[in-house]
Structures are given as C-alpha cells and as structure tokens.
Amino acid sequence: MRILTTVVLLGFLATVMSCGEAGVGFNIGKEVPVEIPVDLPIGDPLLGSLGGDPAPISQSDNYNISEVTGDSFDEILVQGVYYSLSDVSLDEQVDLDAITIELSGSSGSIGSIDITTPTLQDISKTTANFDHAALTSAIQSGQDVISEVTFDFGEYPSEDLNFTFTFYFDVVAKIRE
Q1: How far apart are CA 104 and CA 111, in angstroms?
Q2: Helix (H, G, I), strand (E, B) or coil at 52
Q3: Beta-sheet strands, E only, within 41-91
Q4: Which of 2, 11, 119, 143 sits 20 to 30 Å CA-CA off 81?
Q5: How do residues 119-172 score in pLDDT, each as one tens digit?
Q6: What CA–CA distance (Å, rounded) separates 12 from 35?
C-alpha cells in the first residue's frame, strides 16, 4: 500500500510540474446575446407611406470578444450562432417577406443569414445555418462584429411595432497564462 501511495504521489507531482512549465490554461465559454430592440410607431418614416409594400427596415448592433475575455486569448471557437424574436403581440403579427442578417467586420462582409417566416411572430431560439470560419477569423483578429438585421414587411402594420430580435454568439475563448 505504501508503494502504491508513493507512485500515485510521484505521478501527481510530475503532472503538476509539467503543467507549471507550460502555464495555466483554461477555456471561457459563453453564449453572448446581442439584443436589437425594434420600436416603430405607426407613421414612422422608416415604414414609408400607408398602403402598399413598406420599405425594408434595418437595425444593427456590435459584438466584440473582449467584452467576454478582455484582450488576452489564444484561440477562439465559435460553437454556434442562433437567433430569436420575442415580445411580438397578436396585433403585431403582420405579413413578413423576409428577415436578413448581415454580419460584417472591419475587413468587410463575414456572411449573411436568411430567415423565412410568413408572419412577424415570436420565434424561439433557433440555430442559424452559417459557416463559422469567417466569423471565427474576424473574432480571433479582434474585430467588432456588426450584426445588421433587415425586416422586409409584406404589409403596412396597423399597430405600433415593438419587439426584440436577439442574435446569439456561442463562443469559447481558450486562454493560456
């Protein structure tokens, strides 16, 4: 028993010593929501004039990994990209031609996501089909990621529109000290 205890203790010490030389590493995993509130009262110039097909409306917000990790990280992994729509009342469920999300950084376009839904309605958190490589590269290089959401309404709303579009970045930052 004494030999077994000694072997285990020596193995543990060898592991601790080798980890100490390489430094301490850890991962920070976080799903960061970027909320984009949409508040359009009836008669808002963004909607255009009454009748016909209103002009598409765009709202945007920025995301930067330093909000989660500070400025020190060795590697970034994008685990997923998601979206949701919330706070849509029954009176606000108007025809919707499309929702488009354009992601860009200081180096240009990262990509776009098209969401198809026939009416403006609450959408629970849903996975966005998106190639993570360009997004990972932009985040890794420290760029702000601009999420611009465009709503293309198929009809002019008869009530004020007040809802929230949320875009989620599920990111893991690997840090080694």
Answers
A1: 7
A2: coil
A3: 57-63, 75-86
A4: 119
A5: 889 999 998 888 888 888 888 887 888 889 998 888 877 778 889 999 888 888
A6: 46
State how far the Cα of 172 lies from the Cα of 78, in Å rounded to an integer: 6
Under a CB-based contact definition with an 8 Å cutoff, are residues 75 and 140 in contact? yes
Element (H, E) at 37: strand 25-40
What is residue 49's DSSP assignment?
S
| Cα angle: 97, vertex 100, 104; to 5 degrees | 165
Whole-angstrom Cα distance, residue 66 to residue 140? 10
68: tokens are: 């989660």
Classify each residue of 161-174 as buried b or exposed e, where b means 16 or more C-beta atoms within 10 Å of its C-beta.
Answer: bebbbbbbbbbebe
What are the tokens at 34? Answer: 């970027």
With H, G, I as helix, E, B as strand and everything else as coil, classify residue 106.
Answer: coil
* CA-based nearest residue to 142, from 34, 29, 66: 66
Strand (E) or helix (H) holding 8: helix 2-22
pTM: 0.72
- Taking the C-alpha atoms of residue 155 and residue 119, their distance in angstroms, rounded to an integer, is 10
Integer-rounded Cα radius of gyration of the chain: 23
